[in-house]
TrEMBL record:
It catalyses: thymidine + phosphate = 2-deoxy-alpha-D-ribose 1-phosphate + thymine. One of its GO terms (molecular function) is thymidine phosphorylase activity. SUPFAM superfamilies: Nucleoside phosphorylase/phosphoribosyltransferase catalytic domain, Nucleoside phosphorylase/phosphoribosyltransferase N-terminal domain, Pyrimidine nucleoside phosphorylase C-terminal domain. Pathway: Pyrimidine metabolism; dTMP biosynthesis via salvage pathway; dTMP from thymine: step 1/2. The keyword Protein transport does not apply. It comes from Neoaquamicrobium sediminum. The lineage of its organism: Bacteria, Pseudomonadati, Pseudomonadota, Alphaproteobacteria, Hyphomicrobiales. Keywords: Glycosyltransferase, Transferase. Residues 347-421 form the Pyrimidine nucleoside phosphorylase C-terminal domain. This is Thymidine phosphorylase. The gene is deoA. The enzymes which catalyze the reversible phosphorolysis of pyrimidine nucleosides are involved in the degradation of these compounds and in their utilization as carbon and energy sources, or in the rescue of pyrimidine bases for nucleotide synthesis.
Length: 439
């Protein structure tokens, strides 16, 4: 099947047949379709869309481009969560141990930061000694013995997505619902899960800025995942302000440990984390009602058992055995720590979250090129949430920078990202709505 014929068909708005999609994914994986042909088809899909059946076929073909894991030997349900990406979104670090504490198995294969959003893998890499790319035997052992393992994507998992994503990234075709759907779900299906919960972010710090576009993505993800045989629900959550009060890598790990141990817990982060945990417990069949699921998740957290599971996971993957107790001595610290003081008083009415994410990237906490080495120590903490009553001279946030010049830049970015007003703003709910197959 000639690549150009497949491109012509989609260019002319005709649906692709499963064998044409399979030929495209084979050519994408073995390199026999040139970068130009892949980019042209990506753009044709971006412009003309895909029918549901086409998106399912693309997702399945991309799943089958590499290894598909099998967890059928685990003694309990195997489940995971995937977020479409945000700022200060360290939910996975708490969620995996909470859900594992309740009896599920969570093999969480996570990605690096993308654009202005942070990546779970980069955060875990801030922990000294932690093997975020273990071999399969160790990965399985930790999932079985501890209940969860948060690791990085391996090269043999959905390799078609790896090449397609890199080409989409530089050809303006990332923000396409069928392409995002196939990209995310091919990896999750290859991970061999038995159920999945999606956290679809909507707002100025998400890839989908409006509720309408986030809803379209959520519907597509839920329909295609279920169509591909993976029971999946989604929560749409607010990303019009950073979710945690920290954005960066080591600083988000510290925030997560404080959350787990109860030393400090950001309110919106807690609401989203417990809502996702309840959703996962329902999907995994561990709870039969929402109330029961919430209570199980809440107990896992308040009893300290989830913090214990997190500590055991870190240690089983090579990190310090006393990480939860002494994380401050292990996590890298930035040399310059500077509060960003407000020049005026007022209520925080809006935060340009994407700009906070970009400020973290500019500090060195994210990448501008795939080969960049990130600085795990830098970031922004104590981000005042929307609704905070700020007096002149109060800190809007604290910048953690490698040097004074970087701190100057980040300080200016924080000032620019915050809007202060006179009236107390309406407080948006962090969980916007649930999307299931029939909704
Ligand atoms: N995350 C992915 O894994 N793929 C996309 O296309 C977008 C976000």
């Amino acid at each position: 099947m000639l690549p150009q014929e497949i491109v012509r068909k989609k260019r002319d708005r005709q649906p692709l047949a499963p064998d044409e999609i399979a030929a495209f994914v084979a050519g994408l994986t073995d390199g026999s379709f040139s970068e130009g042909q892949v980019a042209a088809l990506g753009m044709a899909i971006f412009l003309n869309g895909m029918e549901r059946d086409e998106a399912v076929a693309l997702t399945l073909a991309m799943r089958d481009s590499g290894t598909v894991l099998d967890w059928s030997d685990m003694p309990g349900p195997v489940t995971d969560k995937h977020s479409t990406g945000g700022v200060g979104d360290n939910v996975s670090l708490m969620l995996a141990p909470i859900v594992a504490t309740c009896g599920a198995y969570v093999p969480m294969i996570s990605g690096r930061g993308l654009g202005h959003t942070g990546g779970t893998l980069d955060k875990m890499d801030a922990i000294p000694g932690y093997a975020s790319q273990p071999d399969k035997a160790l990965f399985r052992k930790v999932v079985r013995e501890v209940g969860c393992a948060v690791i990085g994507q391996t090269a043999d998992l959905a390799p078609a997505d790896k090449r397609f994503y890199a080409i989409r990234d530089v050809t303006g075709t990332v923000e396409s619902i069928p392409l995002i759907t196939a990209s995310i779900l091919s990896k999750k299906l290859a991970a061999g899960l038995q159920s999945l919960v999606l956290d679809v972010k909507a707002g100025n710090g998400a890839f989908m800025a409006t509720k309408k576009s986030a809803s379209g993505l959520a519907q597509s993800l839920v329909a295609v995942a279920n169509g591909a045989g993976l029971p999946t629900t989604a929560l749409m959550t607010d990303m019009n302000q950073p979710l945690a009060s920290a954005a960066g890598n080591a600083v988000e790990v510290a925030n997560a440990v404080d959350f787990l141990t109860g030393r400090a817990r950001d309110r919106r982060l807690e609401e989203v984390t417990l809502a996702l945990a309840a959703e996962m417990l329902l999907a995994a069949g561990i709870a039969s009602t929402h109330r029961q699921a919430e209570s199980l998740a809440g107990n896992a957290l308040s009893s300290g058992r989830a913090a214990d599971v997190f500590g055991r996971m870190v240690s089983a993957l090579g990190g310090p055995a006393d990480f939860v107790e002494k994380y401050q001595t292990y996590l890298p610290q930035a040399p310059v720590i500077r509060p960003v003081k407000s020049g005026k008083s007022g209520f925080v009415t809006a935060i340009a979250s994407r700009d906070i994410g970009i400020a973290v990237v500019a500090l060195g906490g994210g990448r501008t090129k795939p080969e960049d080495v990130i600085d795990h120590a830098v970031g922004i903490t104590a981000l005042a949430p929307v609704g905070t009553d700020i007096a002149k001279g109060d800190a809007l946030a604290i910048v953690h920078a490698r040097n004074e010049a970087d701190a100057d830049q980040a300080e200016a970015a924080v000032h620019a990202a915050y809007t202060l007003g006179e009236g107390r703003p309406r407080m948006p709910r962090p969980v916007i709505r649930r999307i299931a197959l029939s909704s």
